[in-house]
Amino acid sequence: xxxxREMKKEEKTIAGLPEEEFFIKGHRACAGCGAAIxxxxxxxxxxxNTIVVSATGCMEVVSSPYPQTAWNLPWIHSAFxxxxxxxxxxxxxxxxxxxxxxxxxxxxxxxxxxxxxQALSGLVERNHxxxxxxxxxxxxxNTGIQRSGATPRYAATTTSPAGKTIHGKIEWKKHMPFxxxxxxxxxxxxxxxxxxxxxxxxxxxKGLAHKGPAYIQIFSPxxxxxxxxxxxxxxxxxLAFKTNVYPLYEIENGVIKINQKPPExxxxxxxxxxxxxxxxxxxxxxxxxxxxxxxxxxKLLKLEExxxxxx
Length: 311
What we know:
Helix content is 35%, strand content 15%. By secondary structure, the chain is α/β, with parallel strands linked by helices. The protein has one domain: Thiamin diphosphate (ThDP)-binding fold, Pyr/PP domains (Rossmann fold). It has an eight-stranded mixed sheet, sandwiched between helices. A two-stranded antiparallel ribbon has the order 1-2. It starts with 12 loop residues before the first strand and ends in a 5-residue tail after the last helix.
């Protein structure tokens, strides 16, 4: 995806991204935290004219220990379940005041896929002009690494431990982008990955510019939750793309467009092997995961090819 951006001549950039920081140093995120990398890039996309609504979760906890903050933007903390409702109220008030200000919601997968789904569904159905970003680290990481609707099958968590009989979570991951896209044709939906910062930046810009609701789900490796080394966050992110674990696509007007396709097929085992949450897997289970990924990728290709409207 290419979006042409007009920059002021005096604006400084780093690798095509604005130099000014809005998620600043001093936060308490883990070394190698995928979500912290994401916060830097999406707030650069949002810019100064933005109000951030942050659900309870990792990014809220590490960024706002009273009386300190890592946010260089207007920021409000909501409960786990109601970030979308708070954002809808802010957007309505701004509309009444005739102010053109971005409203950006930030929530983890727990506050999006599960606890926050009702409020998010209402926001989309009512057509609020809000961009909702889910940093998807695939479990309730802040509260102790419990499984969520975003946790992949066979991943070990504290509430889906890998034992002798049951090897981690037994359910497949919820198809959240499709659930949101099914609400109506006016919602902009996209997936993103911190290994592709310009793509992520442009999708958030596009979501904020969209007149209506936008939902952007971003792959977010978690060092303690996934039991990975802190220096391989971006390598894991690249492998998620190369193995088709986390495809990059958009859904506009109910129609899917795949933004990038891996040049070659890489076995999913290459992605799984670096993560302690999958260390218990046997060959049969790895083959089952590979079959599921192939099925989902082929479905995505078919939907793009046919141009069928899923809204």
